[in-house]
Amino acid sequence: MVIKVNGENLNLEKSLNIAELLMAVKAAQPEYVTVQLNGEFVERDDFPKIFANDGDEVEFLYFMGGGQRD
Amino acid sequence: MIILNHEQFDSLVEHAKNILPNEDCGLLGGRLDGDKRIVEKIYFLTNADASPEHFSMNPAEQFTAVKDMRSHGWQLIGNFHSHPSSPARPSEEDKRLVFDTTLSYLILSLAREPALKSFRFDREKNISEEKICVQ
Questions:
Q1: Which residues of chain B does A22 touch, with a Cβ-Cβ cutoff of 8 Å?
Q2: Of B43, B58, B93, B107, whose CB neighbour count within 10 A is largest?
Q3: A59 touches chain B (CB under 8 A)
Q4: What CATH number has the domain bearing residue B130?
């Protein structure tokens, strides 16, 4: 099966849940990652429950924040 | 080295001034050419914190920006935020919240004359300043 991750095709032998998928693509610190599956946000608590299937499009981004406060 | 043009630099300063007293933030779409990181477009995003001393980028806007970059054949090469009243150097909070080591992290200080600096981080969060070229 093929899913698209951040615009790139990824070949998988079986369907993975979002948590497994983030590990498969070696996302550093997945607890700070925001995920969309086919354009819909996936709640972090649902990462182990929601599966990416053939033809799905998954996007993930790191939280970006900070500021001058030390 | 990261490269911006004068128009991009001016727009960055103008936008950050207009957002005062709050911090400004956004993403940099561009392309890589050897060791050069060339900015093609600055995406100004909403500071969800609306704070003078902290920022969080709006995730929905982040996704929209990155998809637009991809549609132009660009990629996410960095981000920026402003420091309204402190120098252009990463704060402890900035360092704590760095997760993507592939990016350039630009900080625009408005404490005095606008000063823009760029930084790279490794996985241990060691900082190195990256040369900026405005041309």
A1: none
A2: B107
A3: yes
A4: 3.40.140.10
